[in-house]
Specification:
Length: 256
């Protein structure tokens, strides 16, 4: 069930529920709008964007061709550490852990959000039909089409899921660690794809934007009431105790 604004303010006087729901809608709207704009620029072959794509790809390819050891490291990062399969395995482990702790609603959200990301990205690829870069000295190869980058999209959506689920459960120092890991990984994925010459810069930007939009959209669509205390938990419910209403919020991780 969804909360009305008035009842949400009664349950949470500081308005956290309203603000968090508003943030999700804002992120969804902004990321979708920018993605659509980027898609239009790609389809129209807007010259400044094309210059950015070709210039960056050519420059990085020139450096990569002279550094085979660096290319080997990038291949390990993109094909193993940050590969979409690896990230989906991590999310699968998260889902199983949530299920074990009894947070089945959040588990369902994780599975649904991760499940939407891949097919949506592939569908957009087929609609756009953009070819991958063809460089003078290719150092790597990848099958399929280019826009948006599947690696970048999976990284953005996967770490978005991890941040939303885990941040409220961690102490401050571990929150910082998780944020750093997420930013380094998402940016790192994008860099490896462009440096290896298998994607344009705009492909990576499109993947990031679409991944963010998926997480925000599923957060709004799934059930905003389950974000009641900012922990992707079950909706807060009011229980009568001794004639007085006592509000309790069910968190992602129930007390053992």
């Amino acid at each position: 069930m969804d909360f009305q604004a008035d009842s949400a303010r009664q349950v949470y006087p500081d308005g956290r529920l309203v603000r968090r729901a508003g943030v999700a809608v804002t992120v969804l709207t902004a990321s979708t709008a920018v993605f659509v704009l980027l898609l239009l620029l790609v389809e129209s072959r807007w010259r400044p964007l094309m210059r950015l794509d070709t210039g960056t790809a050519t420059s990085l390819n020139r450096h990569a061709a002279d550094a085979p050891d660096a290319v080997a490291v990038l291949e390990v990062l993109t094909s193993w550490v940050w590969d979409p399969v690896t990230l989906r395995i991590v999310l699968g482990g998260l889902a199983l852990w949530l299920l074990w702790r009894g947070a089945w609603r959040v588990c369902a959200w994780v599975v649904a959000t991760a499940g939407v990301s891949g097919p949506l990205g592939q569908g957009v690829k087929q609609l756009v039909g953009r070819a991958r870069p063809e460089l003078a000295e290719p150092v790597s190869h990848a099958p399929g089409l280019a826009f948006p980058s599947g690696h970048a999209m999976t990284a953005a959506s996967s770490f978005g899921i991890l941040l939303l689920v885990l941040l409220p459960l961690l102490k401050r120092v571990w929150r910082v660690v998780l944020w750093v890991l997420a930013v380094v990984s998402v940016v790192g994925v994008g860099f490896t794809r462009v440096a290896l010459g298998v994607h344009w810069v705009s492909d990576v930007l499109g993947g990031w934007l679409l991944g963010i939009a998926v997480v925000a959209g599923m957060a709004v669509l799934f059930d905003r009431g389950r974000f009641a205390d900012g922990r992707l938990g079950r909706p807060a419910r009011e229980h009568e105790r001794g004639g007085q209403g006592a509000v309790t919020a069910h968190h992602v991780i129930p007390a053992p």
